[in-house]
Specification:
Blueprint (H helix, E strand, L loop, with lengths): L14 H6 L10 E3 L5 E6 L2 E5 L9 E6 L6 H15 L8 E6 L2 H5 L26 H16 L8 E9 L8 E4 L8 H9 L4 E4 L7 H9 L2 E9 L12 H12 L13 E10 L6 E2 L9 E4 L3 E5 L2 E4 L4 E5 L10 E8 L1 H6 L3
Parallel strand pairs: 4-5, 4-6, 6-9, 7-8, 8-10
Antiparallel strand pairs: 1-2, 2-3, 3-5, 7-9, 10-16, 11-13, 12-15, 13-14, 15-16
The structure holds zinc ion (ZN).
Zinc ion binds next to loops.
Keywords: Arginine metabolism, Hydrolase, Metal-binding, Zinc
InterPro entries: AspA/AstE_fam (IPR050178), AstE_AspA_cat (IPR055438), Aste_AspA_hybrid_dom (IPR007036), SuccinylGlu_desuccinylase (IPR016681)
Family: Belongs to the AspA/AstE family. Succinylglutamate desuccinylase subfamily.
């Protein structure tokens, strides 16, 4: 019996379909040049590098990831369309680009993850969970980022990572960004870009986490952000126009046209994490509606949670809750509390 001939599926025309089909190029076919002159190189499943025909030494390096959670389909589709448009010369590329489709196995299963949340496994945490289905993927995505940024310029603002997500929970601010804690000042270019991407709120972490953007900020020196871009639907059922602001801003960043004489830019409001609600035992009660939107505000002295002798009571004039979740395991975070720090943060951007 002859082997069935594989159906040809041009990688760059539909990188998502190619990746979901589990296709890989032959070793001598893993890189090439598009009609547009852009050079491409297949790095790993769902990982593709692209760079302009001629690039200067201090060219910007931008990593764009989606699908770190496998069911967050809209940004995954947008990223695949972006690859096609760059390859066909319909979107300009003036910087080095690394495209990452994150949890490919979970995408195939239309689920968030199989064993463990991939976005809690970075910065080496995967080594503590070697049996997890997601552990080798976290290690591979760390390697892909390290390799990509090893050849990147070290000039200020030359390294970017944009990790695109969608949320299940409603939000007072439909689109918001999470910035990793690095101890370094935040970049004005990043905040301006977030405003251009129609991101209306930014959450500043104050401790280190295990997300992909924390990893690239710490290990690769990238200006990194996690974007929460609104609600999620199955593949093909997304109204991609709702994500148009972020999509356009990514395309402008890659084209090198972002930040040019934009006078009516709205800077996002900024919120800083001040505390968390911790679930101590199964007696834990979160005294909020199960579907309370992210960034819902509460006044001073409001009791938000109790668990035996533990109480969480609002201490500031106003605190807002983000990512409330009473169903986590005891010992884990059941919600973050933030306060607004817009004026202070924007006055200190560099
Ligand atoms: Zn996500």
């Amino acid at each position: 019996m002859p082997m069935p001939t594989p159906i040809p599926m041009p990688m760059l025309d539909d990188f998502l379909a190619y990746t979901l089909a589990g296709m890989r190029p032959a070793a001598n076919d893993a890189q090439g040049v598009c009609a547009s002159g852009v050079r491409w190189s297949w790095v790993d499943d769902g990982v593709l590098a692209m760079e302009p025909a001629a690039s200067e030494a201090d060219v910007r390096s931008v990593m764009v990831s989606a699908g770190i959670h496998g069911d967050e389909t809209a940004p995954i589709e947008l990223l695949s369309l972006l690859v096609r448009d760059i390859a066909q010369g319909n979107a300009a590329l003036t910087c080095r680009l690394l495209v990452i489709l994150g949890n490919v196995d979970a995408m195939r299963d239309a689920c968030r993850y199989r064993d463990d949340d991939l976005n809690r496994l970075f910065s080496g945490r995967h080594q503590q969970l070697p049996a997890s289905h997601e552990a080798p993927r976290a290690a591979a995505l760390e390697q892909a980022a390290l390799q990509f940024f090893a050849r990147a310029s070290t000039a200020p603002g030359a390294r970017w990572h944009i990790d695109m997500h969608t949320a299940i929970r409603a939000s007072v601010f439909e689109r918001f960004a999470l910035l990793p804690h690095t101890g370094k000042p935040f970049s004005r270019a990043m905040f301006e870009w977030l405003g251009d991407a129609h991101i209306s709120a930014v959450l500043l972490h104050t401790t280190q986490g295990n997300t992909y953007s924390h990893f690239t900020a710490h290990a690769c020196g990238a200006d990194a952000c996690t974007l929460e871009l609104g609600k999620v639907r199955p593949f093909g059922e997304n109204d991609l126009t709702r994500f148009a602001g972020a999509d356009l801003a990514v395309r402008q960043l890659l084209a090198g046209t972002h930040g040019n004489a934009d006078t009516d830019r709205n800077m996002p409001r900024v919120f800083t994490v001040i505390d968390q609600i911790t679930k101590h035992s199964d007696a834990f009660e979160l005294l909020l509606a199960a579907d309370v939107p992210n960034f819902t505000s509460f006044a001073k002295d409001t009791l938000l949670a109790r668990d035996g002798a533990y109480r969480y009571t609002v201490r500031h004039h106003e605190e807002r809750i983000v990512f409330p979740n009473a169903t986590v395991k005891p010992g884990l975070r059941a919600g973050l509390l933030v306060i607004e720090t817009t004026a202070d943060t924007l006055s200190k951007l560099v």
